Amino acid sequence: MTLLSKSTYLMGLQCPKLLWHRYNAKDLLEPPRTLAQAIFDQGHTVGAWAKRLYPDGIEIGPGVTDFDLVCAESRRKLVARKPLFEPAFRAAGGYARIDILNPVADGAWDIIEVKSSTSVKDVYLEDVAFQAHVCTAAGLLIRRCYVLHINSNYVRQGEVDPQQLFTQVDVTRNISALSSKIEDRVNAFAKVIGAAEHPPVNIGPHCSSPYDCPLTHRCWSFLPEHNVTTLYRGTKKAFKLLDEGVTAITDIPATAKLSKAQQIQRETILANQAHADPAQLQAFLGRLKYPLHYLDFETMGSAVPLFDGSRPFEQIPFQFSLHVVHQPGAEPEHRSFLAAGREDPRPRFMEALVNAVEPSGSVIAYNAGFERGVLAGCAQVLPQHAAWVGSLPSRIVDLLEPFRKFHCYHPAQHGSASIKAVLPAFTGKDYSELAIGEGGTASLEFIRVTFSDVTAEELARVRNNLEEYCQLDMLAMVWLVDRLRELAG
Ligand code: SF4
User: Fold this and answer.
1) Long-range contacts of 392-397 (CB under 8 A, 24+ apart)
2) 214 Cα nearest atom in ligand 1
3) How far apart are CA 135 and CA 102, in angstroms?
4) How many angstroms separate the CA atoms of 472 and 17, rounded?
5) CB 22 less than 6 A from any atom of ligand 1
6) Quick count: other Cβ atoms within 10 Å of Cβ 50?
7) DSSP, residue by residue, 158-197
């Protein structure tokens, strides 16, 4: 019988078609993207901090990938009655490696599942229930189960304090209802895996929940370019339409209820041309006051805060790119900042930003709520800049607004108002020539070259890539404002 691991058990819960491919056609699954890999790596860092809560813990089979060896080693170490890190057990058609198995009274054990998120998600309960099921079937007496997740209220001061970094939640009662289903599910999944062909499964919300499915590129490939899943804020409606056999936006029946934005989408696809509302665009552009400041930030965040005065996942700015245009037709002035070294970048970032932004004029950002939030976070730890930060909101203009409100829309946006979709649709320019093409990669690359040892050439290369990326994000706004002026007439 094929053994299920906890991750393949969760795959089976998400989609039996995915489970079948995992065992029978693994090469068709897309490998994890860089960002997914980074999340995985972050999990290891968080796991290492969690282990510090159990100083007398024993690591089981570090570096050993042979499952039989790890299981045998785990069995041997049970008699020590010490916290065990990553012991593995096999029973009842499944095998599970436990983050922390902690000995308690009367020969029993507690399971502690470590997560690098800030809350307990439903999928974690399924995960822990499966682990408890395997351990119990393997002969262990399991007393309680816990999820140990990141405490979002923790503020680092000095050395990281693992006692404060984590919140431990007792999920024993939550998983008891799930446990009774596991045996039947394991048997059903074994049948799926053993079948000659994968089960037929329609695409649906499960393709991205709880995890992005690595088969999406295949299962979704039948959809036409302007398909119903690209309806603006229309996920639920899209899957209902797909169930009814409607795949293209242009085939949506006239009787279907569409939002104003979705109607504009359909009209632009049918007409094969962009939509613009000149009056609304003129009103938006009329809010821009010279000198114009086009501003873009790059930030980093990590589960374990890197700096004093920061919280888990708090976005710490390390770079900005700014264009200042003093009057219509004037040559823009470029100002930028990119942190160097391992210290907290916020003091120097804020100093540079305060000096770079002129005392008056609009500050244009795309999805400006993000910039506002980052600046508010900086003001909390750098009170000397609080008054300046407090004066900025009235000057900030969010360039996302005309796109999110559909004051203009191009069918090539495919229902997205993100700058990565809007820029090529309206200007023909994009990020494809750049070594760094999106903010998540910028953040990862900055962390990589700053907090690990790389050669001077590598450091210079990545810093150059970061400058290019942040500058393009900012220039994209300059080009889009120019384009809005054309559309406003
Ligand atoms: S893309 Fe969707 S339907 Fe296809 S295997 Fe993944 S979850 Fe299942």
Assistant:
1) 392/357, 392/363, 395/289, 395/360, 395/361, 395/362, 395/363, 396/362, 396/363, 396/364, 396/365, 396/368, 396/371, 396/372, 397/287, 397/288, 397/362, 397/363, 397/364, 397/365, 397/368
2) 6
3) 13
4) 41
5) no
6) 25
7) SS--HHHHEEEEE-HHHHHHHHHHHHHHHHHHHHHHHSSS
Enumerate residue ranges in the chain where pLDDT < 50.
none
Whole-number pLDDT of residue 61? 82
CB-based burial label for 82 (10 Å; 0-12, 13-18, 19+): middle
Structure-block tokens of residue 252 = 């949506």
User: So what's the pLDDT on residue 414?
Assistant: 97
Distance, in Å, from the CA atom of 330 to the CA atom of 291, rounded to the nearest integer, reads: 10
Q: What is the pLDDT of residues 119-151, one digit of tens each?
A: 999 999 999 999 999 999 999 999 999 999 999
Tell me the pLDDT tens digit for each residue of 6-24: 999 999 999 999 999 999 9
Residue located nearest, by CA, to atom 2 of ligand 1: 207
> What spacing in Å lies between the alpha carbon of 212 and ligand 1's midpoint?
9
| Cβ–ligand 1 contact at 213 (below 6 Å) | yes
Tell which atom from ligand 1 comes closest to the C-alpha of 202.
3
- Output the CA 86–ligand 1 centroid distance in Å: 30
414: DSSP letter: T
**Does 472 contact ligand 1 (Cβ within 6 A)?**
no
Give pTM, 2 decimals. Answer: 0.90
Any residues with CB less than 8 A from the CB of 475 and at least 6 apart, and which?
294, 323
Roughly what angle, to the nearest 10 degrees, separates helices 34-51 and 439-451? 50
> Minimal CA–CA distance to 212: which of 24, 29, 28, 45?
29
Alpha carbons 251 and 258: distance in angstroms, whole number: 13
